[in-house]
C-alpha cells in the first residue's frame, strides 16, 4: 500500500535527501583526490664479502725483449728468418761471412799443435835432466832450467787452447741465432751490409708475447688509504697468489682471459708520486701487443662485511651526489645520501650511508617521493623481475 508523507513533513524529507546526496558526492570527490599508494619493489640489504677493486691505467709490455746484435764484424750474407714470424731459441736468423773467422780458427789450431810439440820436447828433456842430476852428471842449475822450459811450454799450450776457443766462438758468432723464443720484428739490416765494425750492430728485435705483462700506476694516496683501512680492520689483504686482474680493452669490454697481480714496485716515481703495479695475462692469440694503452681492474683487498646495491637503485641529484630511497617499517619512503665505492657487475659497493637489514627501493623510483607511503610488492615478484632484467 502506498503511504504518502504528510504535507508538513515533505520539506524536511527533501532536505535530508539532499544532504545525503551531497555527502556522498563529497566522499567520492575525496576518494578521487587521494590516489592509491604507489607500488614499489625493494631489496633488503645483507652483509657479504666484497672484493675491493681499483681500475688503473697503463700499458702492455713484453716480459722479455732481446735485441739481436752482430757480435763479430763482417758482411751479412743472408737473412734466414721471415719477418714477423715466431722463432725459437737457437733458430738461425742471419749468416755473416765466416771466411776470415775460419782462417783464424785454422791458424789457432796450428798454433796449438806447435805449442804441444814444444811441450813434448821440453817434457822429455826435463825427464832426462832429472836422471842426470841424480847421477851428478849435470849441475842442478841445468836441471832447473829444463824444468822451467817445460813449465813455460805447458803454459803456452794452455794459451794456444784459449786462442783456439776464442777463434771457435768467433766462427760460431758468424751464424747469428735467436737468444730467446718469441716473435721477431723487421730486419734492421739487409744482405751485403757491413756489421759489427767498431761496435755491435742491432740486427732485429725479438719479444716474448705469451704471457704478457701490463704495467699500471697507482697514486700513493690511494695505496696508503687502502693500507690504513687494512690496519683498522675494515679490509683484509688479498694474497699475492689470489689477487685477480681483469684487463679492460679499448672498446670497454673485458679481456676474456683472467690475469694475476705479480708484484708492486718498491719505489715511488718522484715526478708523478705514483707506484707501478705489474700484472700478467695469457696471450695465446697475440691480441695484446706491447705499447698498447689499457686499463686493468685489480682486486687489492676484501671487505668482509660489505654492503652493495643494484645500480638501478642509485639516483643522483643535480650535483651528481648519489642517493637511494629507503623504506622504513611503516612503509614510508625517505631519501638517503650514500658514498659509493667501485662497481662490481651490475651493483655498486656502498661505503657509507646504509646498513644491513634496511630496505632500498629498486623498482618504481619514478613514482615515489620522500615522505610518501608505498605498497611493497612481494619479494618473489622482485626476484623474478631482477632475474628477468639480468637476462
UniProtKB/TrEMBL annotation:
Residues 1-24 form the signal peptide. Residues 372-391 are annotated as: Disordered. The keyword Coiled coil applies. Residues 307-366 form the Multidrug resistance protein MdtA-like C-terminal permuted SH3 domain. GO terms for molecular function: transmembrane transporter activity. This is RND transporter. One of its GO terms (biological process) is response to antibiotic. It is found in: Cell inner membrane. It comes from the Bacteria. It is a lipid-anchor. Residues 64-207 form the Multidrug resistance protein MdtA-like barrel-sandwich hybrid domain.
